[in-house]
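User: Modeling request: complex.
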Amino acid sequence: AQKITQTQPGMFVQEKEAVTLDCTYDTSDPSYGLFWYKQPSSGEMIFLIYQGSYDQQNATEGRYSLNFQKARKSANLVISASQLGDSAMYFCAMREAMDSNYQLIWGAGTKLIIKP
Amino acid sequence: GAGVSQSPSNKVTEKGKDVELRCDPISGHTALYWYRQSLGQGLEFLIYFQGNSAPDKSGLPSDRFSAERTGGSVSTLTIQRTQQEDSAVYLCASSPDRRRMYNEQFFGPGTRLTVL
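Assistant: Request completed. Predicted assembly structure:
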């Protein structure tokens, strides 16, 4: 079974609108962390935001926020006031504490295109 | 400070040749990861090094793939007898301490490998 599922292969959004990128995960480990990365066309992977399973509040970093719904096992990324520079691939990833190697398990990604 | 660097940035080779890809992690980072990313796809884990411990090679797709990490720093990924299906971007990432759940992975710019 997929551990990280990103159901939106691609999205088009109008500039300045808010965007929600979906991510659902599957784990039996009570301790885990969730990450979002951005990959522009240049290819570099850029860390955006982190949410720990025991964090009481949703993580926020500037225009990025994470809508963490633990019971639903979802960790959607919300980008407020989208900009043209937000056009990129976005990857959701998870780390489980029970994994002694602390690997990141990656979703397939969502391609976001911001329209002017 | 310097980020993760990879060389070469691009490599074109003929089928059957061997190639070496290099990764210089961020100084002091104990964890080093290699991933493969085919066009438009997510990240495929290849191998993980943690300090001087035996590497986790569980992601290597065949025995044509191998990797070394010398002195706990620089790593080389070697692909022997390259095949056309090896064409992809090879990404390297490093992380400061695997024991911390929230530690992000810092990625290099990748090496784009094309096997003709």
